[in-house]
Amino acid sequence: MAEKEFQNVMSETIIELLAIMGINEAKVDFFAGREGGRETVMFSITVDRKDSKMLIGQHGVALFSFQHLLQMIARRKFGDHTDFSVDVNRYWKEKRAHLRRDAEEAAHEVVATGRPVAMRPMLPYERKVVHAVLAENERVETGSIGKGEERKVVVRPKAVFS
């Protein structure tokens, strides 16, 4: 399967799903590149502000569900070519930048004090971003504690064995 075919079919699918949801004014752009050391594909959707609230939902939950639905459709149509993400009005881009900043601040505090820092409770995909960001830091390590909606990332000094 050619990347161009994947891009075209999935862009059309996104437009069709949005139309079913009553969102008729949308622009879909496709980006391929590298993020966090791996190849990534992104469908960026631009919609009216009132429509973006419905598509994103509280803390991005609706957007995560929309992306999951699109990944299931892609899996049916293309097999294993399902590693892509969907962004609406730059929500994920800005969210990732905010999570990166929070993660780096927590790491700085851990290095400065030598004590673990528990971050705020996060959704699973938010924790995944924090873990990925701090995996690059040689001075700290991460883990998760808590259950359900109270699950959070803990950043602690990396144990050094000589």
Structure described in brief:
This protein has 5 helices and 6 strands. By secondary structure, the protein is an alpha+beta fold. The model has no long low-confidence stretch (mean pLDDT 89).
What topology emerges from the helices and strands here?
Blueprint: H1 3-20, E1 26-35, E2 38-47, H2 49-56, H3 61-78, E3 85-88, H4 91-113, E4 117-121, H5 124-135, E5 140-145, E6 152-157
Parallel strand pairs: 2-3
Antiparallel strand pairs: 1-2, 4-6, 5-6
Helix pairs in contact: 4-5
Low-confidence stretches: none
For the record, the CATH class of the largest domain is: Alpha Beta
Q: What is the radius of gyration computed over CA atoms, rounded to a whole number of angstroms?
A: 18 Å
- Give the helices and strands as they follow along the chain: HEEHHEHEHEE
Total number of helices: 5
Determine the mean pLDDT: 89
Total count of strands? 6
Assembly state of the chains shown: single chain
Number of domains: 2
Instruction: Report the CATH topology name of the largest domain.
Output: GMP Synthetase, Chain A, domain 3
Distance between the termini: 50 Å
Percent range of helical residues:
40-55%
Tell me what portion of residues adopts beta-strand conformation.
Answer: 25-35%
